Amino acid sequence: MIPGLAEDSEFDLETRIAILLCKLLTTLRNSIGEKEIAMKEKGSVFSGSRNRRSFLKSGMVAAGAATIGTAMSPGSPVAFAGQEDDHAPITKGDIAILTFLSALEQVEADLWIQYAELGGASNQGLSPIDLPFKMGLAPNYITGLMVLDGDMPQYISDNTDDEISHHRFLNNYLQSKGAKTIDLTSQFAILPPSQVTGVPQNGRLTNLKQLTVDTSWWTRYRSSTKTPDFGGTFENAIPDLAKGQHPAIPLNDGDLVLDNNGNISNHLQAIANTAGFHFAFIEQGGSSLYPALAQKVTNLEVLRILLSIGGSEIAHFQTWQDKAGNATNITDGDLTFPDLNSGVDPNTGATGADTADEFQTNLIMPEPTLFLNEKLGPVSIIRPTSTKQGGAVASVQSFVDDGLFLDPATNKNTGIVQVLFGLAEEADAVRRRF
Ligand SMILES: [Fe+2]
Ligand SMILES: [Fe+2]
Asked: CA within 20 to 30 Å of 69's CA: 147, 160, 237, 309, which one?
């Protein structure tokens, strides 16, 4: 007899079946909550007898969960040892998302390593240096960066450390689940780094020497009336950075030469300012990517990974957008960093309170804006979080548009772009399985 049917014998068979189905669905939802508690207690998927007993507290629960677990995942979950009791198993889709993220984190790590080599901390006070390579090789570049904040070298080193840890952790996790890890360096680390003295001349995945930096995240996070997920478009904070190609690192020792007064040249300050805005551009991408992909994962532990690493990206973004606002109002050739506190729109020349709201540097908290349905009222949120605007393909496209993969020898992108788009399409195609 199916547990649960007999107790409701005052109802006819159809009603009893309907009641049973309702109970089974409730049980499935409850089992997910119980699973999370069990994971907290055991640190992983539960296998202990105490948790198993508490989970199997009624025969109906066991029958319902097992039935639905089988029905909802026909051939799709990747079978991993120890997961036979997991009713939201790690699916092939979860693995596709983790694989893509690991690849993109390796790209992030690569670019941050280049920043740290030149502008990272060479003296971290009493805190030991975490990274296994020489940092802070361009002291005058560091002086330019420190105009944005005295702690910039430390923040650069720490952001680098974080990205390396993201890639390494994701690969370790994939490996622990019997999935393939990803390493793009053997094939695609071919781009030349800075020529500044001391920088290791091994090939890199990314090119920081000719960037076209989108700074529309600045006004996107200050808008109270528009959101990218509703098709909103946003002005750049630094219009000149969004066109042409600009270095975010000194290309060689010549870029580090001081001006006639012994001060940082406008050229070098512009490179440092570009880096400051590029840091925020990169990290706002991660801030949107993780919540966009989190909506597609099935397994709770994988969801926890995405939420937790995603939070780290948001912490980075928030730091960098605060620092970018300290960039000095200078011009170097065709690149001007406008005074964003002047009340003048650097794109249109418009003035007024609305303009001030869009550009003022200390408005760094995410302004409440539209979300889901405008009838719900404005709310302070990460934006975008839709697949179209903030998903995997959108993130890769934004990196491509940024010029990160441009090979100066050919003026074309390296082959990494095709690989990243392939992984991204697989990640975006994933659907949550319940
Ligand atoms: Fe990251
Ligand atoms: Fe990041």
From this structure: 309
